[in-house]
Amino acid sequence: MSVTGHDPDDVSGCVVLISGAARGQGAEEARWFVERGARVVLTDVLDDEGNALAHDLGGRARYAHLDVTVEEEWRAAVELAEGVFGPVTTLVNNAGIDREARIADETLSGFRRVIDVNLVGTFLGIKTAAPSLERAGGGSIVNISSISGMGGFDGSVAYGASKWAVRGLTKTAAADLAPSGIRVNSVHPGPIDTKMITDLGVSSDALLERNRTRLLIPRLGQPADVAATVVFLASDAASYITGAEFTVDGGWTTGHARGAVDDAT
Q: Mind telling me the catalytic residues?
């Protein structure tokens, strides 16, 4: 990988491919990389928003349409990155969809749709981009999972299953790709204030209230909180880290409920 030094903000040698980058966490990740000198191909199915973001980010950014469930579109995105910027050094599998349904209410088609985007899309990204990372001499793959991949939550059977699977896929890929100098890690955001949440009909205030007793840091996460972790994992500061899990959740997964000790005494 052609990044020099061990500054976690130094990604100036990176060629980055990000899925689901038109808005939310993916868009913020693209901004962070470009601001720190990387060259970025941001992809999504939201073409108007993706093109507008790439235009705003300037000459170090390009946009490509990518349905992560279609292998040919992954190949085209990798070819674009290599043709414009050179071999990919960093892949961020950020694209994902949510769906709230209990087991009794979930449909087979709904379950498969979430698995296809969140898990199969991540697999295809790794499989398709890995040869490019090998040509670059190694690099970093960051898979965006969730705290739903760290514990079970009622009412989200498809989403939880997919995010647990991404966690397992990450570890297997880390083992498979280590001989090629490719590190693979997963990031597990907690309640992050993005449009993905509001699209489910949950306001930011309601999301905070729902999680208040579990958050040791008493606020919702912001896309920048996730982007900072992703950039770190792409940098040489993380050169000895692979197969690992990073929770960005305000302490949610510690299992401690604020006020629980007082309530029990």
A: 159
